[in-house]
Amino acid sequence: MKWLLKVLSIIAAVAYPFVVFLLLWKFNIGTKGLVFVLLGMGFAYFIGNSGDLKNKGLKRIQLFVVLSVSLILAVLTFITENKGFVKLYPLLINFFLLLSFGLTLFTPPPMIYRFALMQNKNLEEDPHIDKVRVYCKRVTIIWCCFFVLNIFISLSTALWASDFVWTLYNGMISYILMGTLFVSEWIIRKIVEKRWKNT
Questions:
Q1: How confident is the model at residue 48 (pLDDT cuts 50, 70, 90)?
Q2: How many CB atoms lie within 10 A of CB 48?
Q3: S-S: 33 plus which of 15, 29, 41, 111, CB 3.0-4.6 Å?
Q4: If you average pLDDT over residues 136-150, what whole number do you get?
């Protein structure tokens, strides 16, 4: 049951802008009803990922951040009955990602290097390890810049754009941009690795 809730919570998080758009502006569920939806999403995420409470690392922090964001937005929406607060969820998640990646630049190793270690346990034995560290730090900085840009655009769509534009950017375009950056970095990494092997 937990794995099902975990999958559903991930889908709900990704599709959040579309869920909000449909509930508020298509089905007119109202702000009070949306509060229960936000709390339901938070509860499903908590149950599905409760195993991460045993961890002391990023996963545990992520769990509490997502729950806190959901609860804060739900309370603000309930008290003020302002639909605008529900538009801040993507922005706050991007801020959390920026914080997670950015802090590792000051508390090494950088986030991308940590991901690389998870994929390759023998990475430290690589003859080009110094170059790998520098490369991973630069990629981490690039991702931080992306999150800053995403926060700015997400805030702009929340404050000044139409509901449709907010949904389109935060529910689709931002993911396309993220995927494009991920694929581009993967291609560049393969080219760089090939050069390292030839030196």
A1: low
A2: 20
A3: 29
A4: 97
H runs (alpha helix) in the chain: 2-14, 16-20, 30-48, 58-80, 89-106, 111-119, 129-159, 163-168, 174-197
Residue 57, pLDDT above cutoff 80:
no
pLDDT for 39: 75
Identify which of 123, 108, 100 has the alpha carbon closest to the alpha carbon of residue 189.
Answer: 123
**23 and 88 fall within a common domain:** no
The verdict on 77 and 107 lying in the same domain is no
The DSSP secondary-structure symbol of 45 reads H
In this prediction, residue 58 carries a pLDDT of 56
Same domain, 108 and 196: yes
CA distance 167 to 175: 12
In this structure, are 28 and 87 located in the same domain? no
Could you give the number of structural domains in the chain? Answer: 2
pLDDT tens digits, one per residue of 74-95: 788 888 888 788 888 888 888 8
CA dist., res. 174 & res. 182, Å (int) = 12
Query: Cα(97)–Cα(52) distance, rounded to whole angstroms?
Result: 18
